[in-house]
Amino acid sequence: MNFLTQFRAAPNLLTLLRLFIIPFLVIAILDGRYHLAFALFIFAGFSDGFDGLLARWLSQRTTLGQYLDPIADKLLLSTLFLVLTHMNLVPRYVTVLVFSRDFGILLISTLLFATGTLRDFRPSSLGKLNTVVQIFGLTVVLVAQVWPSVHADLLRVALLKAIAYLAPISAAQYAWIVFRRVSSPEPQAT
């Protein structure tokens, strides 16, 4: 499938829509329009799940989609961490830990890919848990702005602390997995 055909595949168009939403989500948060920001975030979340279903249903799994979908996810989450930190809704240390983890993983995977050392970069179990907790944490941060309550605020604080612990731990697990894969002897051809 050529690049233009991949670009026009319905799941990829949905992923591009998610990327298109990001600036409007930022503007809504900066303007204090948290109802709109929450709605856009929820829409982005549904589009993320739906693009995968569409890819399977329509048999439109593409190389472009394999790269574009995680990029859109990371860009959405990273942007939210930055703007919510700017609005003093997420502590700086949480955002720094999240960005440090992501930058480290990106750097290692880029180096390994460029050298041809390792090309399998599947997320680890803790990496997946980290992403789920980040999504849930950011959702609660927005919910606490739309429907303020003591319970939402307590949950927000607990989730942000969990993110701060999970980020470096999942980065260490990722580094350990990569180290083991790179250090293991190549399987012998029979």
Write the layout of secondary structure elements.
Blueprint: H1 3-8, H2 10-30, H3 34-57, H4 63-86, H5 92-115, H6 125-146, H7 150-183
Structure description:
There is one protein chain. The chain has about 190 residues and is mainly alpha-helical. Helices cover about 80% and strands about 0% of the residues. The protein has two domains: about 1-85, no CATH class; about 90-180, no CATH class. The longest helix has about 35 residues, at about 150-185.
Question: Key features?
Answer:
190 residues, mainly alpha
Count of distinct strands: 0
Distance between the termini: 34 Å
SS summary, helix count: 7
Write down the secondary-structure element order.
Answer: HHHHHHH
Large-scale geometry: globular
The number of domains is: 2
Rg:
18 Å
Oligomer state of the chains in this structure: single chain
Strand content: under 5%
Whole-number average pLDDT?
87
**Overall SS class:** mainly alpha
Major sheet: size, sense and barrel closure? none
Given as residue ranges, the uncertain stretches (5+ residues, pLDDT < 50) are none
How helical, in percent, are the residues? over 70%
